[in-house]
Amino acid sequence: MSTYKAPLDDLRFGLYDVLGAEALFARLGHADANRELVDAVLDEAARFTETVLAPLNRVGDEIGCSYDKATGNVTPPPGFKQAFDQFVEGGWTGLTNAPEHGGQGMPALLGGVLTEMVDSANLAWGNFPMLSHGAVKALETYGEDWQKDVFLKPLVAGTWTGTMCLTEPHCGTDLGLIKTRAEPIADGKYAITGTKIFITAGEHDLVPNIVHLVLAKLPDAPPGAKGISLFVVPKFKVARDGTVGERNAVRCGAIEHKMGIHGSATCVMNFDGAEGYLVGQPHKGLQAMFVMMNSARLGVGVQGLGLSERAYQNALRYARERLQSRSLSGPKYPDKPADPLIVQPDVRRMLLTQKALIEGGRLLSLHAYSLLDVAEKSSDAGERAQAETLVSWLTPISKACLTEWSIENTYNALQCFGGHGYIHEHGMEQYARDARITTLYEGTTGIQSLDLIGRKTAATQGAGLKLFLADVETFAKQHEGDAALAEFIAPLRAKCAEWGKLTQDVLQRAAANPEELGAASTDYLLYSGYVVLAYWWARSVAAANASQRPQAFKDAKRDTARFYFARVLPRTLAHKAAIDAGADPLMALPDAGFGPQ
Amino acid sequence: MSTYKAPLDDLRFGLYDVLGAEALFARLGHADANRELVDAVLDEAARFTETVLAPLNRVGDEIGCSYDKATGNVTPPPGFKQAFDQFVEGGWTGLTNAPEHGGQGMPALLGGVLTEMVDSANLAWGNFPMLSHGAVKALETYGEDWQKDVFLKPLVAGTWTGTMCLTEPHCGTDLGLIKTRAEPIADGKYAITGTKIFITAGEHDLVPNIVHLVLAKLPDAPPGAKGISLFVVPKFKVARDGTVGERNAVRCGAIEHKMGIHGSATCVMNFDGAEGYLVGQPHKGLQAMFVMMNSARLGVGVQGLGLSERAYQNALRYARERLQSRSLSGPKYPDKPADPLIVQPDVRRMLLTQKALIEGGRLLSLHAYSLLDVAEKSSDAGERAQAETLVSWLTPISKACLTEWSIENTYNALQCFGGHGYIHEHGMEQYARDARITTLYEGTTGIQSLDLIGRKTAATQGAGLKLFLADVETFAKQHEGDAALAEFIAPLRAKCAEWGKLTQDVLQRAAANPEELGAASTDYLLYSGYVVLAYWWARSVAAANASQRPQAFKDAKRDTARFYFARVLPRTLAHKAAIDAGADPLMALPDAGFGPQ
């Protein structure tokens, strides 16, 4: 039976020892977010996720959501509503939202920590509150004052939830193709008509109203992505004064039968002249969509991290308990009938790969969240702008790498169980199935990779990368005389130099042939992720050594960092070779040559 | 909706153009297996698998097997029995078995081709006939004459099926720990008592009798793996004269709920003093087990290949049909509202990776099967022995690489569908779930890797590797002046030299520290698999060029080979670096340091 304990010790290490969250929060004016309060929040989040959410994970998978065709209603798995009510009562939905909308105004960084615990405990459940964040962001940024007044309070309080209605049956990546239309009607309202698919939490009974943020085209819309507008369309109509009226003409037409996240309602939403209001300027919906997406993308990265953590915990327990064969170098537990799996080098390889990707990935993610705080709260406009550039560059790396690694981590965790991992009762196969969505939704890995190499690198002359490399160099200089770090800093610097050169080479080739960007994209993103993690592992060793923690903790960080540098970072060699090969090996084969199908 | 067309053209290319099957079969005395007959077998196998088995794949997944607790009976999904009856009537179960047992005496190579088609069409169904092969092998090799007379005919005819009962709840890899015991009773019979788990096709109603090959310990058994004996235990008792008697005391206690292969019955089998006969010598069951296992391991590799092929076919179709965005270098299909996915370099990367691993992997597998034929039928004892050495060395490579690649291939195929891949109705997520068993059963990838580097390399002073490298060198010499091959042969030779050196280095380090074998094992196996595929891609180009096939076929092989050398083979760089890092980075962290769990 799968269990979960929030990794509070490693989270605190990341927050306090590596990222210096105490000083950061103080500097950003988060007077409330002192260590005592943050620790209390962490403890309570751990209690809630371990005892309320984690026990519902399996029932969520086994029973899933159900759909009533007659009414269009969707019922989440048993226990989900009670847990949601407790989550709302605890004030968790608004943890990081602005106090003027009823939020608690805590740093985004703390929200990232909470999200990890929620997603470890119950990823499918976590999708119900998660989507509200994007809706809140879009309304905060682009909503009229009355829209903020009316919609933000219940969304922040969690008494309503939100959705993002983007995808249609014939278009996901290419939203310029959407067909949903918005016709002006009386009182500045619009009638929205069309079908949206893959709408997470599109319909459910956890709260009385659901606020849909919907992309649609106005009658005079220019063709393509420049003709998209954003509308707010509630399940129950809402007047400008906040009065909730009758049911709107939006209805769930079906829920999808999916490989995993069975407890998450993935809805087909039919808008049949549903009343809505324009959010922001006409035809400027794509900007608003990116505001929603960026928030969601970091969150999906954390989903990958959370699943990896839980799968690892269970694989580690099994590797310590399961007795099978002896160590090749002689019995390690001679009093037992066989040694536990953990003595086997190849099992240790699988465990250490998970550990290195999880603990390093956690810092990659926490750092990105901390940059959101800096970008919002710093008193220095230059620092705000730099943080914005850096987090916008890190977002595709964090989303894609943490989710790709969750595929690998849940694979390795299951593999540690041997054939037992394939059996439902152990819970490991659910993590592998749940993880599989994370590299798909909110933009596939391929889309993240194009975002990184195109919009976030080529289009900015590598602005994000330059800032990151400068951070690395600052760190390296700080520790130039530190003998304990030399073994990490030298290869990190070499890898960073290679990264800069590689980037230049790709951009140069792309100037002559735009296919070069696409050809390099995924390998370039993964290469980047591994170098980013090398930095965080070097910083982990430095932070551990500088801390008051026990020697065993420091040794474990150093040993894991050594493993990472010796046996994971070399994957960059393969990615670099693939990038260096350029577009020709991908583009030479004619479309017809791929096969007779 | 997922479809399947047997890849007859590529199978014929592999058989005839690359492996020279016509001449080989003639030389080995397979007079019947001329081209006309082999072609007819291929066509009929394609028809059967495409039209009978493939349509049952989805229902097999959705309905699965059912278990009746009151009777212990297991019912396979609807249609499975009718398909099995047709398979038996067509004589397919005995295609490669010896004529004296009622088989058709066709080459094992042809059996490998049939297995690929069956597994593409319906992997779960394929598990019912598959396990009989191991039982037949064990009885052929170690059975007494009367056992052969009584059991082999119905197993070969497919009127009975067989199982391999090895695993117990507390032991899978380490069979020395088994508790099932065998007590001598009257007439040279034994009473078998114990519980076996993960028994594929352990119980079902496709045939009236099931022949279990069971590992158990005699009362005087020495401890550990040297005390294991093999018994044949039929579901209905069978006398020495072949008379079938009453129901034996063996019963299915449950079926497992698994991530995939829902149509395959994975049974808990309870033996409660069931009557059986000793097969072979007392305490020599482990040898017999390896005979069963080796046969099954090549078969599981083919399962990975078959799943990859089907997933690829569907991904390719989708990538050609789905219109989304435009090529970065300008519209490629300007008459359509958007370009199909296949114009995107990153989609082509995913497709080409599948294509290269599938077509190359097919040759790796077919070659191994052809060596079974040489090992059995060659008139030259030296050639027989060499083929035996080579296939025994290739078996873990084929099993582990083809199954690991099936994880990657079904991942990439699903990824081509974006979010739609995660939805059950498209069929892609089933392939990913089904593939997940293949790296686990018949020995995990870790176990295959230890087999390769330990028993098949260290213990033989690299006998298999040397034979393979000699084959590569022969091929390279033959084509020394061939300008079309130079771009492949030079890096292939360099990689082979590196491989030899790497092997020596590992064995040398292992002499001082046995953990080095385990530490290198999985990276070494994958490294080996990629070099083996480089050889088959070079040979594919040579064979295509030497053939009468259309220029487009030759170009497609060359372009795919270029892709493989440029963008897949460099993975060896990462594996080599991991191997070179040695055991220390894996062994340094104390067991307690992995985490608090």
Automatic annotation (TrEMBL), chains A, B:
Stretches assigned to the Acyl-CoA oxidase/dehydrogenase middle domain: 164-272
Function: Involved in the assimilation of dimethylsulphoniopropionate (DMSP), an important compound in the fixation of carbon in marine phytoplankton, by mediating the conversion of 3-(methylthio)propanoyl-CoA (MMPA-CoA) to 3-(methylthio)acryloyl-CoA (MTA-CoA).
CC cofactor: FAD
Acyl-CoA dehydrogenase/oxidase C-terminal domain segment(s): 284-450
Xref: SUPFAM superfamilies: Acyl-CoA dehydrogenase C-terminal domain-like, Acyl-CoA dehydrogenase NM domain-like
GO MF term list: flavin adenine dinucleotide binding; oxidoreductase activity, acting on the CH-CH group of donors
Record family assignment: Belongs to the acyl-CoA dehydrogenase family.
EC numbers: 1.3.99.41
Gene3D superfamilies per the UniProt record, alphabetical: Acyl-CoA dehydrogenase/oxidase, N-terminal domain, Butyryl-CoA Dehydrogenase, subunit A, domain 2, Butyryl-CoA Dehydrogenase, subunit A, domain 3
Native source organism of the sequence: Thermomonas haemolytica
Record keywords: FAD, Flavoprotein, Oxidoreductase
Catalytic activity from the UniProt record: 3-(methylsulfanyl)propanoyl-CoA + oxidized [electron-transfer flavoprotein] + H(+) = 3-(methylsulfanyl)acryloyl-CoA + reduced [electron-transfer flavoprotein]
Residues in Acyl-CoA dehydrogenase/oxidase N-terminal domain copies: 40-158
Location of the Acetyl-CoA dehydrogenase-like C-terminal domain: 468-590
UniProt keyword Oxidoreductase, yes or no: yes
UniProt protein name: 3-methylmercaptopropionyl-CoA dehydrogenase
